[in-house]
Amino acid sequence: MQFMMFVCTDTEPDTDPDAAPDIERWVADRDAAGQRVLGERLAPPSGATTVRVRGGELLLTDGPFAETKEVIVGFDILECADLDEAIEVARAHPMAYAGRIELRPFDPLD
C-alpha cells in the first residue's frame, strides 16, 4: 500500500533539541527497508506557482494559493503494509518533532 507523506513545518515544534533523529539516518533506514519509494525537499513557497482555470481563462498566481504559516517543505512516497506501518515510519522522521507529517493513502482511479 502506498502513502504520500507530506513533510510540513509547524508553528509549535518540539522544544527538545535532542529528540529529533538524524535525517540522513532516517532516509538510509527507510531505503534499506524498502519503505521509501521516492522523496525530495521542496523549494520555498515563494517559488510556487498556483494554476487555476476559471471560465476557460488560465489564472496564474505567484507563490502558494493558501495563506498559512505552515508549509509543505518536502514529501516522501512510502510503500507500507498498512497505515500502522506508515505511522511508524512517519513517527521516526525528524520533522515529526520540528514540524508535522501528514499521511495520505493513494486512491487509484481504477
Structure description:
With 110 residues, the protein is α+β, with helices and mostly antiparallel strands. It contains three helices and six strands, in the order E-H-E-E-E-E-H-H-E. The protein has a four-stranded antiparallel β-sheet. The radius of gyration is 16 Å and the shape is globular. The mean pLDDT is 91. Strand 3 (49-54) and strand 4 form a beta hairpin. The chain has one domain (2-6, 13-105): Dimeric alpha+beta barrel (Alpha-Beta Plaits, 2-Layer Sandwich).
Tags for this model:
alpha+beta, 6 strands, 4-stranded antiparallel β-sheet, about 110 residues, Alpha-Beta Plaits, single chain, 3 helices, two-stranded antiparallel ribbon
Q: What string, H for helix and E for strand, traces the elements in order? A: EHEEEEHHE
Main sheet specs: 4 strands, antiparallel
For this structure, what is the CATH homologous superfamily? Dimeric alpha+beta barrel
The coarse overall form would be globular
Please tally the helical runs, counting DSSP H or I stretches of 4 or more residues.
3
Mean pLDDT: 91
Radius of gyration: 16 Å
**Beta fraction:** 35-45%
Instruction: Give the terminus-to-terminus CA distance.
Output: 15 Å
What level of helicity do the residues show?
Answer: 10-25%
**SSE class:** alpha+beta
Low-confidence stretches: none
The overall number of domains is 1
| CATH architecture name | 2-Layer Sandwich
CATH class descriptor name:
Alpha Beta
Domain YCII-related: 5-105
Family: Belongs to the YciI family.
Pfam families: YCII
